[in-house]
Amino acid sequence: MEIELWWLLVLPLFFGLGWLAARIDIRHLVRESRALPRSYFAGLNFLLNEQPDRAIDSFIEATRNDPQTTELQFALGNLFRRRGETDRAIQIHQTLAKREDVRPEQRLTARLELGQDYLKAGLLDRAEEVFVGLRGSELDVEALHHLLDIYQQEKEWAKAIDIARALPQNESHRAQKDIAQFLCELATQALAQSRLADAKPLLEEALATHRKCVRAMMLLGDMHAADHQWEQAIDHWQRIEQQNPVYLALVADRLADAYRRLGRERHGITLLKSYLERHTSLDLLDVVFREELEIEGPAGALALVREELRRNPTLLGLDKLLEAQMQTLPPAARTDSDLMKNIIHAHTRRVARYRCDSCGFKARQFNWRCPACGGWETYPPKRTEEFDLAP
After folding, report:
1. Domain that holds residue 346
2. Residue 307 covered by a domain
3. DSSP code for 382
4. b/e sequence 211-248, b meaning 16+ C-beta within 10 Å
5. Is 280 part of a structural domain of the chain?
6. Tens digits of per-residue pLDDT, 39-94?
7. Which of 13, 49, 54, 176 is 20 to 30 Å from 236 by CA-CA measure?
8. Do 335 and 358 share a domain, yes or no?
């Protein structure tokens, strides 16, 4: 294959242009590296040598020598906030938010970061002021989320409702559930102050927002009970089975008391037994057991627990069985049974807890809102033993 003469002239030209371009890139990189403060490279060296504190000091020195290192200052501010040094984070983000030589979007970001610094430091009023100032900006959604968190911490439920409805996803199932809970919180405050007329429309609005809001239905029943309207109270509490039957355990005591006040104790225990047959629950078993023990005596309670243990063998059920058996024994024969019951009871304390479906946090008391992750209705009224036995 013959090579034409002009190729011999063009190839060296290409090589020359490539060499020239490489030289230009190298010079550009060298010029940029020389422009960076020496403390910047010292900080990188400390990081590589696993000396984070000395690296941070070097990076701070770099920002002092070169105020244009905006991204580095953002990184340092976030690092200080994560380390709990909120005063240093606030100082950095305040400086960035006031600077006129940074881009407008960077100033907005600095204000958002400053608000988060205040949140971390527990300065909720200052954080609220910052996030309210970001309303209508490009960071409006982020500001709304933070304001919602603040108002929940401060228990400003009316403001929380307004913010939740202003969020883009306000029509989602999760948002409707949260708004219904905020309305229930307002209703609970009204009920605590005996303002029944104020509580009722709030609860009706909660059900209109989220028709399966069990808490609203419970509180409506409580309102009627407080006014001695036992039939209406029972009617509302019974509707919970259609909303979410797992919450029947929370109103079992209320139902038993309402039927007792109407003089229909046996009708009440029959209803609770039917719930227990359809919706197995350790808390519900506890209420039915106590009612059966009072109405039918130890023999009836013993038969009830035996049947339930055959269907759903649990330590908590066994604890009730031993308690019922001890009631049928003479005092002199209770020593061994009492010893066994104490041993079983000690073990049941570990499994008689509620667990958050969202974060797994466990608590001895039922909570409408998780104390750990802040989720609403993430605590089903089921003991951890029931989760462990679930298929």
Report:
1. 272-351
2. yes
3. -
4. ebbbbbbbbbbbbbbeeeebebbbebbbebbebbebbb
5. yes
6. 444 444 444 444 455 544 554 554 554 555 677 677 777 777 887 888 888 887 88
7. 176
8. no
Is residue 84 in a domain? Answer: no
Sign of CA dihedral 378, 382, 384, 390: negative
> How many structural domains is the chain composed of?
2
Tokens representing residue 144 in the block: 């709304």
Indicate if 293 and 340 belong to the same structural domain. yes
Report the candidate in 304, 298, 286 with the shortest Cα–Cα distance to residue 326: 298
Measuring CA to CA, how many Å separate 106 from each of 98, 101, 135, 314?
A: 11, 10, 16, 58
Tokens of 72: 């580095």
Residues 306 and 363 in one domain: no
Backbone φ and ψ for 369, nearest 5 degrees, come out as -125, 130
SS3 49: coil
167, 182 contact by CB (below 8 A): no
Contact 176, 206 (CB under 8 A): no
How confident is the model over 118-177, as pLDDT tens digits?
Answer: 999 999 999 999 999 999 999 999 999 999 999 999 999 999 999 999 988 777 888 899
For residue 387, being part of any structural domain is answered with yes
Question: Residues 291, 313: one domain?
Answer: yes
Beta carbons of 39 and 11 less than 8 angstroms apart? no
CA within 13 Å, CB half, 84: 0
What span, in angstroms and rounded, lies between the C-alpha atoms of 38 and 35?
Answer: 9
CB contact at 8 A, 351 and 336? no
Domain co-membership, 325 together with 290: yes
